Amino acid sequence: SEGVASTGKDCPNNGDTHCMAGTCNIGFYVDGSSDCVEKECTCENGVGKTGTQCPSHGAHACGSCTNNFKLMNSKCSTCLPGFNNAVNSALCAANVCTCAHGDAATGSGCVADGAEICTACTDSNWVLDFTNTCFCSDAAGFHVDASSGACEVKTCTCSTGGTAATGKDCVTHGADQCLAGHCDIGYYFDSNDNLCKEKQCECTNGVGKTEKECPNHGAHYCASCTGNFKLANNKCEACLFGYHLDAGVCVENQCTCDEGTGATGTACATHNEALCAACTTTGFELVSGACVKNCVCPHGTAATGVDCPGNG
């Protein structure tokens, strides 16, 4: 017996199984038939405690859980990690996660049913980030193709004389961006807009060389001169023959002539030199670039210049 038997008037019949109230051993209670029987607790979603573990017969106290419920504070009311009872409150079903570009988490690794949680990325170029999702890394040089959804290498164009940037070097897929250091001959890389542009040399007093003829963009190399400057050693610093430099401008030479018109341009080798092109003063004629008076001498050599008192 698990208690103290009733005696005297408390015992209905001699030999009956009848226990005195309050005398059952720990873990037992007197049932309706006055017998001491083991206490049994109830448990929703599990197995109730019994005997000494059951605080009071019929109380709700779980000893273990079934259907993937988790035992907590003697109750089976929540699911184990990786399970949920959203569909059936009495059954904890395994969470099902998704992963668009790899392997989805399962079991306890899938913390919420229907969540996007990956354990590995299997599609080309997708990488697993700290949130356990697969992403296509722009910083690594990839982009998501709008039509296929695939993670592909970014590819730029280079519309002006060079090689197009790709991958990490291509900031935005499809943009017009050239690869630094890979411009065609005659082009240079402009870092302001990442394009290859025609080289353009500078030229004071002329037109600078371009493309292949220009050794370095911005260098001083003349292709031709303007304003009557002369091209020499890729520079336009001296004036053409017949011109002289006046306040930075090539001006036509002007020779002097007291008795006529001075020579100009290429006929005047040195500016302000005495050299006549024509005589305008009566009694003078042009002789070797000078206006001189001429006499006549029928039977000898006529006097000229200062030796001739008057023309004729």
Coarse shape: rod-shaped
Number of strands: 28
Mean pLDDT: 89
Strand content bin: 25-35%
Largest sheet: 2 strands, antiparallel
Radius of gyration: 57 Å
Low-confidence stretches: none
The succession of helices and strands, N to C, reads: EEEEEEEEEEEEEEEEEEEEEEEEEEEE
Q: Give the N-to-C terminal Cα separation.
A: 179 Å
**Helix fraction?**
under 10%
Strand order of the largest sheet: 1-2
Per DSSP, the total helix count is: 0
Derived structural class: mainly beta
Give structural notes.
It is a single chain. The chain is mostly beta strands and 312 residues long. The protein is built from no helices and 28 strands. β5 and β6 (75-79) form a beta hairpin. The strands form 14 sheets. Strands 1-2 form a two-stranded antiparallel sheet. It has a two-stranded antiparallel sheet with strand order 3-4. 24% of the residues are buried. Among the domains are: 8-80, no CATH class; 206-250, no CATH class; 253-307, no CATH class. The mean pLDDT is 89.
Helices and strands in order:
Blueprint: E1 28-30, E2 36-38, E3 46-48, E4 62-65, E5 69-72, E6 75-79, E7 83-84, E8 93-94, E9 102-104, E10 118-121, E11 127-128, E12 134-135, E13 142-144, E14 151-153, E15 162-164, E16 178-183, E17 187-190, E18 195-198, E19 206-208, E20 222-225, E21 229-232, E22 235-239, E23 243-246, E24 249-252, E25 260-262, E26 276-279, E27 284-287, E28 290-293
Antiparallel strand pairs: 1-2, 3-4, 5-6, 7-8, 9-10, 11-12, 13-14, 15-16, 17-18, 19-20, 21-22, 23-24, 25-26, 27-28
